[in-house]
Design a protein that fits this description.
mainly alpha
Amino acid sequence: MFRFTARCREDGCANFAGGRCRVAAAVVDHLAPVVDGALPRCGIRAHCRWWNEHGVEACRRCPSVVTDDRAREGAYAEALRL
């Protein structure tokens, strides 16, 4: 999964329905939490749709979502350097 920080397009996005982000709902419903205890620092939490819709449960899963593709190894990372 890819975690994006751009402003939500809401009804302009195929993953938005019923006033909520279906990606965030899927993350909370299908991924196991990876954070116990205190939540990690987050530069977008104050305006994060996932946080506003799912609170702590979204934050406990967020680190398992790719936030920087440059961190990937192998051929994929090499392709990004081109």
